[in-house]
């Protein structure tokens, strides 16, 4: 039986689901400290093996500008097989796409970015990605 790893980050939470999915739930504001903690989790997992990150933004509010800057400077796109956002609004989609675009321009973007409305849609999307062989293999 696989061990389920879980983290609590202020009002946010995350858990790793074998073999390769990190589920993140953002509740309320994302602070600089939250960004540091999330980046450390990404690095811990990604340095071991690339993974999918699924971020539930349905209860998210704001992201501190220092937090956005920290993530853009300290997260390595090579850590990810793909990124899926659940319930992202217009501003959240724009922020995610702009970060991806910066990584694309630097040649560091190695994964696809997706937006869905529910966990079920996220699971279906990941199953399709795997079935079509689009998930990058470590």
Layout: helices, strands, pairs:
Elements: E1 5-9, E2 12-17, E3 21-30, H1 32-46, E4 51-63, H2 65-74, E5 80-86, H3 90-105, E6 112-116, H4 119-131
Parallel strand pairs: 3-4, 4-5, 5-6
Antiparallel strand pairs: 1-2, 2-3
Helix pairs in contact: 1-2
Q: What can you see in these coordinates?
A:
There is one protein chain. The protein has helices spanning 32-46, 65-74, 90-105, 119-131; strands spanning 5-9, 12-17, 21-30, 51-63, 80-86, 112-116. With 138 residues, the chain is α/β, with parallel strands linked by helices. The chain has one domain: 2-Layer Sandwich (Transcription Regulator spoIIAA), CATH 3.30.750.24. The chain has a six-stranded mixed beta sheet, sandwiched between helices. Strand 3, helix 1 (32-46) and strand 4 (51-63) form a beta-alpha-beta unit. Helix 1 (32-46) packs parallel to helix 2 (65-74). The longest helix has 16 residues, at 90-105. It is globular, with a radius of gyration of 14 Å. The model has no long low-confidence stretch (mean pLDDT 85).
Number of domains: 1
Please tell me the CATH architecture by its name. Answer: 2-Layer Sandwich
Rg, Cα atoms, Å: 14 Å
Structural class: alpha/beta
